[in-house]
Amino acid sequence: MLRISIPSNGPSKINFSSFMNYLLPLPPKGIDNEVNNDAVLLFDNEEEVRVYTDKLKQLPGSHKKIGNEIINTITRLVPSLRAKSPTL
Fold first, then answer.
1. SS (H, E, C) the chain
2. What is the mean pLDDT of the chain?
């Protein structure tokens, strides 16, 4: 299982509550909530991450900004995805 932790005090200011408040799509294996409200995105493999980021890219309107922030955070935390995929 691949776990990508998005720190709530990071540059994007995204946390577990952001996914609920903005009704964002969840990763295939869901999200864990850390004690400090960090969001931990759960995937089986990197391919699921790629599919998920593609889904985030298709968000409409005001959701698009937060979706892009999540994508940027994922690519910062998992640089191997950026190297393998020109779409990230």
1. CEEEEECCCCCCCCCHHHHHHCCCCCCCCCEEECCCCCEEEEECCHHHHHHHHHHHHCCCHHHHHHHHHHHHHHHHHCHHHHHHCCCC
2. 84
List the structure tokens of 81.
């995805």
The 10s digit of each residue's pLDDT in 39-74 is 999 999 989 999 999 999 999 987 888 888 888 888
14-to-6, 40, 43, 56 alpha-carbon distances in Å: 7, 11, 18, 14
